[in-house]
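Good morning C.,

I know you're traveling, so I'll keep this short. The sequence:
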Amino acid sequence: MTKTKEHFRLRHLLYPVFLPSFLFSIGESGLIPIIPASAESMGANIPTAGIIAGLGMLGTLLADIPAVKLINLLGERKAMIYASFAGGISILLAVFASNIFMLSAGILISGACMAVFGLARHGFLTETVPIERRARALAFLGGTFRGGSFVGPLLGSLVIRLWGIHSVYWMTVLFAGLAGLVLLTTKPDQMKNTPPNKGHKLWHIAKRERVKLRTLGLSATALSISRTARTVGLPLWALYIHLPVSTAALYIGIAGALDFGLFYTSGQIIDRFGRKWAAAPTLFGMALSFFAFNLVHDSTGFFVIAIALSLSNALGSGLVMVIGADLAPKDARNEFLAFFRLMNDSGQAATAPAISLLTVIFGLPLAMAGIGVVALGGAIGMWRNISRFEVN
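The tokens, ready to paste straight into the viewer:
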């Protein structure tokens, strides 16, 4: 099933993989900012609205493991089709929600659909892309996330201006449906199902592959935590130094555009020079940036930190998926990737609450330094362990 280097072309993945991923990401990213406001309009207080906003990630965590059986049963293409349409239907619950319970159910189910869609896509690329091109393909996939995260909120804000906040849910339904339609119109021979796994139980695979998971798996989780902390930490630090919201948004937007513009460079570096030459520097750069937060007291320093974090992050575009693909055993690819993704998703989900707790106990400067320690540990782990394991 794996294509040879001579016959593989990245453009072969544009329609069946990258386009639906981009569309799905637009819908998801456009929805996230308006969930708390929508919950509040239904009578939820601020803490409850925050909990509802986090239900998408909870749904992803709950579905990371069950998604394996569905994908092994249906194959990647059909699983992504069902996840797209089911995701759109779940948001219809939010469209017609008359209370916070219907809204919560819709957000939770949509998160579960994201888990199925993400695992199917990850497993498909792991199996079909030659190792020599793997990082570039997954960096390009990472670029679709970044592009969707950039376009989604902008499009959502336009939709809100024209038709009101509730219309963003319809926008998400539309883009989820478009992603499913693209996959539905993809010829089966353009996205053939990969060979099924051998029926291993996931927990058996997690135990068998525990050395990989507790070394590079944890290092990849450190990168996921650092990325989430960047998203959470920059706005918090802007508040901490009393930076005007408009200025902070502008600087964060410029940094995000730089991050998006450099995503493919990461894949080229990884494929040409090796995984550790992107993995260790990206985490080390993020660690230094988090430590340097304590030196930032004005708008210039904030801009420098935002750019430094974006440059560091851009160097590792798609890296978490590359590491997972490299480590996945051939006889239990989906089971391994499911547990690997569960680790990373758990790290992401725990980041914001952890920063809040550290801030309450020690203050925001020490909380940012704590994330720097996590990133530094991940850099050391990547440097020491990447060469230990055979790339599959």
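Safe travels,
E.
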